[in-house]
Design brief:
Blueprint lengths: L6 E5 L2 E9 L11 E11 L5 E12 L4 E7 L7 E2 L4 E10 L3 E12 L4 E12 L6
Antiparallel strand pairs: 1-2, 2-3, 3-7, 4-5, 4-6, 4-8, 8-9
Pfam families: DUF525 (PF04379)
Protein name: Protein ApaG
């Protein structure tokens, strides 16, 4: 069954699509730990080759605490996308609250080496309510 991407943003011909799912089997609400998995698809609708170099995430928990996560590539890769190609990956996010959000940007290098900042759309992280 194909996943339905819930959030999308396009920057200069590069589309980033996201779907996030709460993972109860990885969460421990009684210990103040909640966990989500998110699937990202990056699509190159531009007319040139691009390479994903870095990522920058802004993660906000339900108490308003903001974390900035930066690093090379995504899940250890720096994929090259030719026009018309896409790249999918899955990663996860733990929080100390049952609600939060994520957003950010990727930095790509265009064929001429110039940097291109591509927006990652805002998406909420929300655990389902549970009976006490």
């Amino acid at each position: 069954m194909a996943e339905l991407f819930q959030h999308a943003a396009m920057t200069d011909g590069i589309t980033v699509r996201v779907v996030a799912n709460f993972l109860p089997e990885q969460s421990e609400p009684e210990a103040g730990k909640w966990f989500w998995v998110y699937h990202i698809r990056i699509e190159n609708h531009s007319h040139e080759r691009v390479q994903l170099m870095t990522r920058h995430w802004r993660i906000t928990d339900g108490a308003g605490m903001v974390s900035h996560i930066e690093g090379d590539g995504v899940v250890g890769e720096q994929p090259v996308l030719m026009p018309g190609q896409s790249h999918d990956y899955v990663s996860g996010c733990p929080l100390d609250t049952p609600h939060g959000s994520m957003e950010g940007f990727y930095t790509f290098h265009a064929e001429d080496g110039s940097p291109l900042e591509v927006r990652i759309p805002f998406f909420p992280l929300a655990a389902p309510a549970t009976a006490s």
